[in-house]
Amino acid sequence: MGRYVVSKWKKTKALEEYESLKQVIPDTVRMTKTSLQNHLKEYEMVYIKPDSGTFGNGVMRVKKTKNGYRYQLGVKIRDFASYSPMYKSILRHTKGKRYLVQQGIHLLKHHGRSFDLRVMVQRSPKKSWETTGIIGRVAAPRKIVTNYHSGGTLVVAEKLLGQHTKNLKTQLQSLDKLGVKVGEAMGKKFPGVCALGLDVAMDESLTPWILEVNTSPDPFIFRKLPDPSIFRKIRRYSRLCKK
């Protein structure tokens, strides 16, 4: 079994086999004209994303509005009075690729900009799963994705979460445990995988939502943390992974 799993759909389905994880995965379906419309009826705001893709490329936010529908790709926003013309316009961007529709989570904000968290999970030298780092990613102004490679800013997780909770230690511990759970679930389904990057959104009730799991996570973003021992450990585990 390979080390990398490209399909977001396969990874989502693997995690949904575990009830405790299914509860914190936004409702995700394959995109069709009907499934997108149904998701918009139910959630009013959704994200659509390519089944295989990186760095937030191709991700769109779609909303039901008072006057119809709206979608955003990058910083461009388009409004439509009815559903069919909007869907036709979206298809011009998806270019025949497989896309998923995901229930929209309203992210916490830092100075008016949305943020999420990257949780690094790796197999340790003893082959058990361990959460080795957590870092915050703040979306660039007017953008909907937080990815560093799409203009997002890396910020210490404690700084971001500390503005929204007095129980910072408890929140970080629960993210740590969530990372290990996901590692164990993914490891059973895809035995070759040895490093994961969880994209975790926190909503206003501080519920963590697993937006995506990356099997080829960038370790170098953790160099931005003030504690250099975190990056050193991540690099050490990464080298073991390659052996």
Report on the architecture of this protein.
With 243 residues, the chain is of the alpha+beta class. It has 2 domains: 8-25 and 107-242, ATP-grasp fold, B domain (D-amino Acid Aminotransferase, Chain A, domain 1); 28-103, 2-Layer Sandwich (Dna Ligase, domain 1). It is 33% helix and 30% strand. It has helices spanning 8-16, 19-22, 33-43, 83-94, 157-162, 168-189, 228-242; strands at residues 28-30, 45-50, 60-65, 68-73, 76-80, 99-103, 109-110, 113-123, 129-138, 153-156, 195-202, 208-214. The strands form 2 sheets. Strands 1-6-2-3-4-5 form a 6-stranded antiparallel β-sheet, sandwiched between helices. Strands 7, 8, 9, 10, 11 and 12 form a 6-stranded antiparallel β-sheet that branches. A hairpin with a 5-residue loop joins β11 (195-202) and β12. The two termini are 15 Å apart. 34% of the residues are buried. The mean pLDDT is 93. It comes from Paenibacillus selenitireducens. This is Endospore coat-associated protein. It holds the Pfam family ATPgrasp_YheCD.
**How many β-strand runs?**
12
Count of spatially separate domains: 2
What top-tier CATH class of the largest domain fits best? Alpha Beta
Structural class assignment: alpha+beta
Low-confidence stretches: none
Spatial strand arrangement across the major sheet: 1-6-2-3-4-5
Number of helices: 7
Strand content: 25-35%
- What is the average per-residue confidence, as pLDDT, rounded to a whole number? 93
The outline comes out as: globular
Ends distance:
15 Å
- The CATH superfamily of the largest domain is identified as ATP-grasp fold, B domain
Which CATH architecture of the largest domain is right?
A: 2-Layer Sandwich
Strand count, sense and barrel status of the largest sheet are: 6 strands, antiparallel
Organism: Paenibacillus selenitireducens
InterPro entries: YheC/D (IPR026838)
Pfam family, one: ATPgrasp_YheCD
Protein name: Endospore coat-associated protein
